[in-house]
Amino acid sequence: MATAHQPPSTAPHHPAAGAADTAAPALESAFDAAVAADERIEPRDWMPDAYRATLVRQIAQHAHSEIIGMQPEANWITRAPSLRRKAILMAKVQDEAGHGLYLYSAAETLGASRDDLLDKLHSGRQKYSSIFNYPTLTWADVGAIGWLVDGAAITNQVPLCRCSYGPYARAMVRVCKEESFHQRQGYELLLALSRGTPAQHAMAQDAVDRWWWPSLMMFGPPDAESSHSEQSMIWKIKRHSNDELRQRFVDICVPQAESLGLTLPDPDLKWNEERGQHDFGAIDWSEFWSVLKGNGPCNEQRITQRRRAHEEGAWVREAAAAHAVKHSERKEATA
Ligand code: FAQ
User: Fold this and answer.
1) What's the CA gap between 57 and 226, in Å, rounded?
2) N or C: which end of the chain has fewer CB within 10 A?
3) DSSP code of 39?
4) What is the spatial distance between Cα 145 and Cα 140, in angstroms, rounded to a whole number?
5) What's the 58 CA to ligand 1 centre distance in angstroms?
6) Average pLDDT over residues 282-289
7) What is the pLDDT of residue 222?
8) From the CB of residue 265, how many other CB atoms can be counted at a distance below 10 Å?
9) Counting atoms of ligand 1 from 1, which one is nearest the CA of 218?
């Protein structure tokens, strides 16, 4: 953003709560003008507290989704049917860890602390995507996750590359490139199964049947029940509503399912000539809200595993911190 910069500092600026800030109206106008002009807001720019809080909430939830999302697929690394499939899956799961790291870094530019965000995830005070509370029962689920879950993630995240907050938007560019590879590997895996033996075809169909509806729920509640959309769209954090993106995803998936030789489990799915879009059946929102409350098939397993991984990784964090201290001491000594 060209205007409303805070004086240069080494850390993001956080005005003391309640401090009389006579410049605030001018700063707020400059912020509004920058957003209206499609300029990027950067970490040291002034921003409303609620804008900062909304970004921290969404980016943290996104980061948590990436690292929790490693679990359902990692479940299949040791059982991948060939060395090639195993190598691809390992690379994909590692990419998800990388996405988590970019996103936690983006949240840190807003003044959030990574330890605090992880603590909020582990104690259930922050969410991660509903989709990762479903189990991966067969190898075909790895394909369905790639095709549908990564496909939904891309549909949602491509517009986030134009998000008004610079660090989040820039992180999304690389994330989307990698997600695009993930989506293709899932599609290719499902295609191989669909064209395989009758048992393999049935396995692919069963996976699509189970992942279709939860994938549609990833886009969030219907617009009328979306508490944050209106303000987030004014701030250009979100560029499209939940229902718009969900519709876009359905329209993309229908021809892809046909090419795969698989069906989507929705008898009401049909092309609507007038709208130029597909009509689709009613989503079971009671299931979505129940999963969000912690009652999905895998909520407990996912968070228990995450807490355990965090505890078991304590020595790595300590070693990295000790190494960083030694490194900077050595640098100072030779300076
Ligand atoms: N799950 O007012 P809205 C991936 C909550 S990454 C859980 O509409 P908003 C990659 C929402 O937080 C997948 N909670 O909210 C991968 C709010 O609750 P709160 C993650 C949800 O933020 C692939 C309440 O409902 N992607 O898959 C969900 O404006 C394969 C009201 O909702 C992102 O996070 C949900 N699905 O819109 C990794 C993308 N939906 O906080 C591994 C960035 C809504 O007030 C393997 N996020 N809620 O308590 C976004 O674009 C937005 O945050 C939405 C929700 C669109 C998800």
Assistant:
1) 15
2) C
3) P
4) 9
5) 7
6) 98
7) 98
8) 15
9) 36
